[in-house]
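agent> fetching stored inputs for the pyridoxal-5'-phosphate docking request
agent> found them:
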Amino acid sequence: MDDLINYYEKCGISKEVYSFGEKILDSLKDRFETFDKTAEYNQLKVLGAMQQCRVSEACFMPSSGYGYNDLGRQTLEAVYAKVFSTEDALVRPQITCGTHALYIALSSQLLPGDEMLSISGKPYDTLEEVIGIRESIGSLKEYGVSYSQVDLLPDGSFDLEGIRAAIGQKTRLCAIQRSKGYQTRPSLSVGSIGEVIKFVKSIRSDIIVMVDNCYGEFVDTIEPSDVGADMVVGSLIKNPGGGLAPVGGYIAGTKKCIERAAYRLSSPGLGKEVGATLDINRTLFQGLFLAPTVACAALKGAVFAANIYEKLGFSVIPDSNEPRNDIIQAVTLGSPEAVCAFCNGIQSAAPVDSFLTAEPWDMPGYDSDVIMAAGAFVSGSSIELSADAPMKEPYAVYFQGGLTWPHAKIGILRSLQMLVDKHIVDIYI
Ligand SMILES: *Cc1c(COP(=O)(O)O)cnc(C)c1O
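agent> prediction call returned; pasting tokens
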């Protein structure tokens, strides 16, 4: 293994940083084994769905124009519905990103006079404009949909009494965000999501429960739709695209919800029947096929980073031992310099654009400047090794992804090296 140490050194990672990492890894064998088992289970699940839905070579034929009778698209949606245990699914390249998928899911179910209730506190930043928490053209608020919110309790659990009190006549939809997003709260387990769904349905069974599933897919052996969610929503340039999907989003859910969502995405009357997929289906199938092992690689990276930075005295969420509910690792570095150094360590380890320097910028949809390190094959893909941070207190960096475990490891070691070189951390302590 001396060869490997020397090669790391040639690639700019010192013997000290490498050895520090190896010591941490020695303590993570059991955790990694658990992640491998989850990946194995989910690989069986995805494979089984593809076989049962009779995925064939004909599914990879391109379609154009209106895209009527697109066998690949129809089969892919059937596969997603199987994987997520739902009646139906909408999986489309015309869904531009996660925010768009969530907007479609929400705006298709909420009519003027209805109220949306978020029961996991403040939603993801970009949804503030979707909902109208921050004024925006075309927000739900502009269309007469009101919004209210119940925060999680200080320990990160659901506030059941608060939820009971907030559900009223107008409440049409409850939204739950599985992953913390750009917040320093714990992400939610599928188990706890299932319990709160049962609670909500016991108050009013006709309330639609939507779960923002971004970054959560394949982290567990069950998904929120296995425990009662009417809709689960996410982005194909995160977990379920397996790094191969070049664009797209998905909504999996009940027949009724998906029909409304499809009418919203395309047009009343057209729904799921239109939407050419051009030549993209093969990558969407193949990406889904790889997604369980890609999510597993990302989880290993997240836990490796958590253990490194906790050892160095930083606050990390989740902490080094916590069970995982998404692939995101937050590390509170505490200063703009440290955030920039960390992100540029990740940038320098990328297969694409490794020679660039990441700088904070005013990204659309966010209320502060954001720095993003991403040298990805798919632009903006955050299932690939990436790190981003809003440039505001407490200067926490959100690290995620890694298509392979070795690459996640290299990226994390590089970020550590960058912090050591800038004398921000000292690994001899
Ligand atoms: C990424 C993300 C979104 C938005 O997805 P985009 O593809 O960036 O628009 C929404 N919610 C959560 C929790 C996310 O992580």
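agent> quick read of the result: Residues 97-99, 124, 126, 177, 179, 181, 212, 214-215, 235 surround pyridoxal-5'-phosphate (CB under 6 Å).
agent> awaiting further instructions
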